[in-house]
Amino acid sequence: MNLRRLLIANRGEVAIRIARTARELGLATVGVHGEDEPDAPHLALVDAVEALEGEGPKALLDPDALVAAALKSDCDALHPGYGLLSESPALARACQDAGISFVGPPAETLELFGDKTRAKALARSLEIPVLAGPTEPCSLEEAERFRATLGHAQGESAAAVLLKAVSGGGGRGMRRVDLHEDLAAAYGAASREAELAFGTSELYVEAFVTRARHIEVQLVGDGRAVMSLGDRECTLQRQHQKLIELAPAPNLPQETREALHSAALALGRASRLQGLATVEFLIDADDGSRFFFLEVNPRLQVEHTVTEEVTGVDCVALQLGLAEGLELEALGLEADERRMGQGAAAQLRIHHERMQADGRALPSASPVRLVHWPGGPGIRIDSALLPGRAPNIRFDSLCAKLIVRGAHFDDVIRRARRALDEFVVEGPDTNAAFLAALLDRPEVKAARLTTRFVENEAADLLDAASQIERGWRRPVAQPSSAASTGLAGAQINDQDPLAVLDYGRTAKDVRPATTHTAASSPVSSPTALASSIDDGPPGTLGLPAPLQGTILSFEVELGDPVAVGQPIALVEAMKMEHVVTASISGIVRAFAAQPGDPVIEGHPIAFIEPGEVAAATAARNEEPVDLNFVRDDLQAVLDRHTTGLDRARGDAVTRRHSRGHRTARENLADLVDPDSFVEYGAVVVAAQRRRRALDDLIANTPADGMLAGIGRVNGALFPGHAGQAVVVSYDYMVLAGTQGAQNHRKKDRLFDLAQRQRLPVVLFAEGGGGRPGDTDGIGGSGLDCLAFALFAGLSGLVPTVGIANGRCFAGNAALLGCCDVVIACEGSNIGMGGPAMVEGGGLGVFHPEEIGPMNVQVANGVVDLAVADEAEAVAVAKQYLSYFQGPTP
Asked: pTM value?
């Protein structure tokens, strides 16, 4: 290789990754660090070190300083890694002016794709589908106008949109703004975050796709020819940041895969790509043929590892070869080829963080006491994690990448799950158990994913992660001396959250003899911080920081009255903003820190004198608040719920009564105690949006034909948990009580809750079985749900009561047959197949009344209790349940 000496303008695991390949190619390497990381782990793997001024990301965001360091250390090449300045035209141009090879595309390409709006315009010119949105960076007012216009087209006052940083990526400077959320607040937060991460606050706006997959294509070009190196699935995300990446993208229609690669190659050729680039797309999860261009990242991606595993190509070596001016053929690649590779691979991003029930993640920064990596065939670890160090909260929370390779997708999922069971980090919290819970989900195993899956399922995933973590048997780290580990130059008290910082204050005076010091301070001295929430002025209570980070600003001033939930401060951690809100009402009497100061989790940032603030806050308002006023968004929710009530369905109720039957809600009201029923999924509609208008579905398919929830039965006699029961009732007034995609999901959830909480189940089973007319996202078998297995699993665990009335066929009858006791009304028909199924099976033509009539089903024992009507059926069901609810007073 003609290059001699490489400066790696990055840190952490990516710096280590680059250093390893450079060393194998015979290049000398130079590492860099800020003032807060003089002994960062990546510095042990380079030949020389250059110190930079500043702390945190700012130290690595100065192009002139990096080029000066490269010149000072006699480097003829500079690799930017990913993030930071990896897409900076200024750095690429500064390298060119200094005669240093920039390992990446030229400045012109970085300018093109770094401006996301220009990239979208190029895609449009190539007739590649893009999301609706302006083609230029937008102000807040322009974003508001676009949102209103988009909403008007959808029949709403506004629409869900996505604000994104014009430069950079990785979820920084990105905010989803839903229908009724405050766009101004989101715009301000995204703008500040973009400025912090990329040095520019410019944003653009585009339509938000509610159910989407995130697929990307890896490109490599030499300035003359371009080829693709497979694709990756990046759909599993939290806060717009990827958690698990898969290669190749599973369950992707071949026509769509070819279309994505063709679109990506067209962009690569049009830009005369020289280097690596990743072209990102969104795919409609309900229509795999619809896709939209997102952006091009002209750099090494965090998830390049999975491409390496399936193609056998070293992406960093490719970059270095292209930086020398080599063509693709000289690097062992064929121009315009589409290399898909063999087998499958997954990358799991392990972060030092705590996941929250709403899908957000809070960083954890305790010192690392012990690390144990998994091993075995097909396992690779990319990490800079070392015992004795605390994570640097100024940077991203990624601490390790677990990369797994296998022959097939199923093999990879199993191997990754096994590897997580072996992975151990003691000290900071990690998301390892959360990742394990993700891999256990059937949707992940079947690759039925959307970008909001983690967000929507976060609470259940957290519950599962807690159970997994409790089941893991972990070694206990034993205290050891610095001499015995060879890693730490000083001892710290790992029970004291300030010990790391205390050591950091003295680190300049006490230098270790070993290469790596113990837990070098990741933040500046917190002398302004109080250490206890009781350290404030008399009569005040401290407002503790919910996480470790740096204060960006205070939203209140001394003497201000504040109410519970009011924003008090903005804290930055891992380059993301977090709002700290008041936990008590009162008057702000003191601050424990200033903007720019570090804060420690659990330590106070402000002191509040508790008290009533209603009068003070009311005095600030120009107009009194009307507590009876109903906002438009709340009224819309109330109206939507009303649509499903009997009083809004007059004609259907009249027809139902004319047959001598009660409505599903009338049966429900008779069974459960007044005001005790909590309905689940009341506003869902049938999964038929591809062929029916939404207004039609709202009016005619409320709750997807199923009332489901938890209520009290016999609560006057059996209070508390003993009186609770799961109630599921098919609604014959909606599509003949058939089983649809959404009501299957409701059953899945409620039968699972019945098992977890040991709740009895009452099932009103009237209905026609499986529904053939659903169209939205239904793939594979129509019975691809958990309801039947879950319900059968309740046998012998909790009481299950089934009530049949009228016609009960197919899947409805299958659930009825699983019940401990079957109650059926006079005139009921119960059969495992309705007339259409019987005729289709060649058994003849029968009327519904001829299939499974009561005189047959009572005699053969299918029906345990025959009753006159639904009123008697409910009374008998309540009596039966009482036998299991406990002794009466």
From this structure: 0.59
